[in-house]
Every structure is written in C-alpha cells, then in structure tokens.
C-alpha cells in the first residue's frame, strides 16, 4: 500500500477562541495545553480530528504504541464494520471535515469505485486504514509516548502528566512532563479471558489464543487436529466462519460453544438502533444507578449478537457441505458454560462443560482454543492514582460521570477529566459504539469552548430519535446546545 496522500484543503476555519495578537507560547512543560488526551483509539482520534478544526484550542494526544492500529488480529478478509461508513470519526457532527471517510477515499482516488460498490458497511481493514491515515496526518497525535502518571497541581491549577518517550523497540528513550488544563482519558479496552480459562494461556505447546490475536496465530490454529471456539458474539462468528472455510469438507473438526441461549442475531431493527442515539444516552444517564445496572445485562443482543450477513454466511457454508449427502464435522452448541479447563499431556486440552437448561455436564477434548470472550475496559486506577482522593464514586465504587462525560471531581480541582469508552455504567450500550464517537467528541469540545469563550463550537441536534424514552420526555434536549437554544426561541 502506498503512503497516504495529503488531505484535501479544508474550508475556512472557525472563529478563533481568542482575539488575534502575538503568537502564543508553544504548549509543553511550562505552557499548558488546553486539552491533553491519553490514548489514541478511534474515540480520542475522533476528538483529535474535530479539535483540529477549532482555531486557538491547543490539544495533544499521547499513545504508547508506535502507530495507530485497530484490532489488527481481527482484520479477517471480508469482515465488515457493524456500523455504516457515516459513523466515521467526524461526519455525523461535521460532514464538511477534511478528516471524513469520504475525503480519505477521495485522497486515494477511490471515490468512484466506492460509489459503484454501493457499500454502506465498509471492510474492517478499510476502516483501519482510514483511521491510520487520519492519525498520521493530524498534527496533534503523538505516538511512542507512554503516560506514566497524572497529578493535579492546585497551586498552578493544571494537570501534570509524566510520560516516557519510547524508541523503536519500545524501550525508554527519554522522560518528560507535560502540563494541561484539562484531560481526556481514552485508553480503550483489553482482551478478557474468563477465570477458568486463564491457566490455558500459559500452555506453550497447545494454541490457546484470544480472538484479538487470531490472525497472528491462524496458521498454527489451522494445523491443529480439532479447534474449539468459545464465545457467540461477532468475533466468535467471524473466527468460526474463517476456520470453517479453511478446513476440508467432512474433516472440519470444529466446535463452537456459546454461553448465550442461542447464536442470536444482533438487534438491527431501525427503532432498535435508536438505543445508539444521543437521546437514549441522555435517558439512560438520567436513570437511577440501580436501574442502569439492572438494565445493561438485559441488552446484550443490542451489541453482543451476530450480524445477519455473518449468520447467513455460516449457514450457507454448512449447507454447502451437505450437498454430497454428508454432514460437516462441526458442532455448534449454545447455552454452554466452560466450568474449568486443564491440559492433557502436551498436545490436548480438556474443557469441562455445563449446559444451562439441561443442567448436564460433560467434557470436551480439543487441540486448540480460540477465546472470543470479549473485552473489558482497561483499568486506569494506577494511572489516575494521584487523583483518586478527588474522584467521586458511586455505590459500587466506580467513578461518577456526568452527562458531558466528565468524571465528577472535588470542587478544589478546577480542571476537567473527560472519559471515552469507560462510561457504559453511566451512559449505556452506546458508550463503546463507533456511531456515537463524533457526537461524544463534540459534546466534550462544546463543553471546553463554552468554558473558554461562552459559545459552543459544534451545533448539535436537539433530537435524534423518533422514540421518546421515558414518560417525562427527558431524553430530548437535556444537554443544552446552540441548536436547541435556537429552537426554543
């Protein structure tokens, strides 16, 4: 792949945050940034791209990785995003932004092929390449910067961020300190391995890998006599389908286990998708803590199901293998929990299974395991340990997060700490959804520009769903916006 072309020219910049005058001192160790981001995943990358359009706002985003990569182990050939291409980093807030997916296509001279392809859901590898293009060309993203700790300096009313610059081998090269008036934490998630399966990862001779590292281990997995996939979400389905297509007919030797009661499709009806709108996010945030905690597990099919095309492809592949009168050597069993697991010699794994409805137990001998067991929010306790005395907690000991994605802090801290993708307990199923990335970034930036200039930079719609969530209509217009103010007269 050739190097990305330079982005197209941007339209006239938005009004500056401060009157014109002598150039301001460059932010860094002595002069604070207005906003410093920790982590450069899709959500903070969206924030960085939209912040780039605000003249006078100084921002920087640090990431310890050498470059942007989005789930590289799951960029399976043909796999697509589960959200439309309009859910890029900027379009749902600023369609004219130079950082849009369509402008990336234009810079690659691919607009006409995309137009004729009539694709609403783009390839996952395509989304990864688009985000990498944005990350490489934005002036405010900085890689190989490992943030070590964050503290608040009350005397100077700023955050102090200690970080280490890493060399090409990931080794410490230099230490530094950066100051910022406000922070945004976007460190993302990490692969989750259930407790009963954790000892298996230490098995050197038997491949036991999380689906996040699937492509790195694909050839090793395919060489195994029998493969078991654990997990019924989209990742598990994509891995199972890829393995199925690669194994010879009649000798597939595959097992797919799911804890869910069925290999269920993701809720993708039009009104069902309105759970991923700002209106529902505001409604969910307004619920009592107990109601939110009770509601989230029941909504698993909104985000943990399998898309219709993948389910169809799996069934079609299995059906094709029956055309000669036989059945594929593949077992698909939902409603099953892996209770414990262990090794048998050096070449096999024993999984102890329990069926939820039958109450029966059995064991399965397998040669390799792919754990499509999802992700968990990466803990930031250690990173934010110096701020812990200032952070307000809910009844379960989690940080309280307000409607504008700010951690609630003691009033002695005048700086603001925003969070990305770490607020499902307060903002609902849409917290990790790419379709809300641009909107959440705009909420954060509007909060900052409102603080600095008294005006919000990005007009946001007052209503985004046909559904009215709640009897009091509180889902509409809770967060004041310029557009809402105009509509109110």
How does this structure look, described?
With 489 residues, the chain is α/β, with parallel strands linked by helices. It has helices at 42-51, 101-107, 111-117, 124-137, 218-222, 234-246, 278-285, 289-295, 300-303, 308-320, 424-427, 437-453, 482-487; strands spanning 33-38, 59-63, 141-143, 145-153, 158-166, 172-185, 189-191, 208-210, 227-230, 254-257, 330-333, 336-344, 348-355, 361-366, 368-371, 375-377, 417-419. The longest helix is centred in the C-terminal third of the chain and has 17 residues, at 437-453. The strands form 4 sheets. Strands 1, 2, 3, 4, 5, 6 and 17 form a 7-stranded mixed beta sheet that branches. Strands 8-15-9-10-11 form a 5-stranded parallel beta sheet, covered by helices on one side. Helix 1 (42-51) packs across helix 12 (437-453) and helix 6 (234-246) runs parallel beside helix 10 (308-320). Strand 12 (336-344) and strand 13 form a beta hairpin.
Question: Quick gist of this model?
Answer:
With 489 residues, the chain is an alpha/beta fold.
């Amino acid at each position: 792949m050739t190097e990305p072309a330079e982005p197209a020219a941007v339209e006239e910049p938005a009004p500056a945050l401060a009157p014109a005058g002598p150039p301001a001192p460059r932010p860094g160790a002595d002069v604070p940034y207005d906003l410093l981001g920790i982590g450069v995943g899709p959500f903070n990358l969206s924030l960085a791209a939209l912040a780039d359009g605000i003249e006078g706002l100084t921002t920087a985003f640090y990431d310890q990785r050498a470059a942007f990569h989005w789930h590289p182990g799951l960029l399976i050939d043909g796999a697509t995003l589960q959200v439309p291409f309009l859910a890029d980093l900027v379009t749902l807030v600023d369609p004219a932004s130079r950082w849009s997916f369509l402008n990336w296509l234009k810079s690659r001279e691919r607009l006409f092929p995309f137009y004729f392809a009539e694709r609403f859901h783009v390839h996952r590898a395509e989304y990864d390449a688009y985000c990498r293009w944005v990350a490489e060309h934005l002036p405010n993203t900085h890689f190989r910067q490992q943030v070590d700790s964050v503290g608040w300096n009350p005397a100077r009313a700023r955050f102090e961020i200690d970080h280490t610059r890493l060399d090409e081998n990931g080794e410490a090269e230099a230490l530094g300190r950066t100051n910022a008036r406000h922070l945004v934490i976007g460190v993302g998630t990490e692969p989750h391995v259930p407790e009963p399966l954790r000892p298996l990862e230490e098995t050197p001779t038997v491949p036991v890998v999380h689906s996040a590292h699937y492509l790195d281990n694909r050839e090793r997995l395919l060489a195994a006599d029998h493969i078991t996939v654990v997990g019924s979400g989209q990742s598990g389905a994509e891995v199972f389908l890829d393995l199925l297509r690669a194994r010879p007919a009649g000798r597939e030797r595959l097992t797919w286990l799911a804890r869910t009661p069925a290999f269920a499709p993701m809720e993708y009806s039009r009104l069902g998708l309105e759970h991923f709108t700002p209106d529902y996010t505001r409604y969910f945030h307004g619920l009592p803590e107990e109601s939110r905690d009770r509601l989230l597990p029941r909504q698993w099919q909104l985000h943990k199901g399998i898309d219709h095309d993948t389910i169809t492809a799996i069934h079609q592949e299995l059906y094709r293998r029956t055309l000669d009168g036989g059945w594929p050597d593949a077992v698909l069993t939902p409603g099953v929990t892996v209770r414990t697991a262990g090794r048998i010699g050096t070449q096999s794994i024993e999984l102890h299974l329990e069926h939820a409805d039958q109450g029966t137990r059995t064991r399965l001998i397998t040669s390799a395991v792919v754990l499509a067991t999802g992700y968990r929010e990466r803990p930031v306790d250690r990173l934010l340990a110096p701020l812990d005395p200032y952070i307000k907690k809910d009844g379960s000991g989690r940080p309280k997060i307000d409607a504008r994605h700010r951690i609630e802090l003691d009033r002695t801290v005048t700086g603001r700490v925003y969070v990305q993708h770490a607020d499902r307990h307060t903002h609902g199923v849409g917290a990790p959804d790419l379709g809300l990335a641009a909107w959440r970034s705009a909420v954060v930036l509007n909060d900052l520009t409102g603080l600095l200039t008294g005006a919000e930079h990005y007009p946001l719609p007052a209503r985004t769903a046909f559904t009215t969530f709640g009897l009091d209509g509180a889902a509409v217009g809770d967060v004041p916006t310029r557009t809402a103010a105009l509509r109110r007269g």
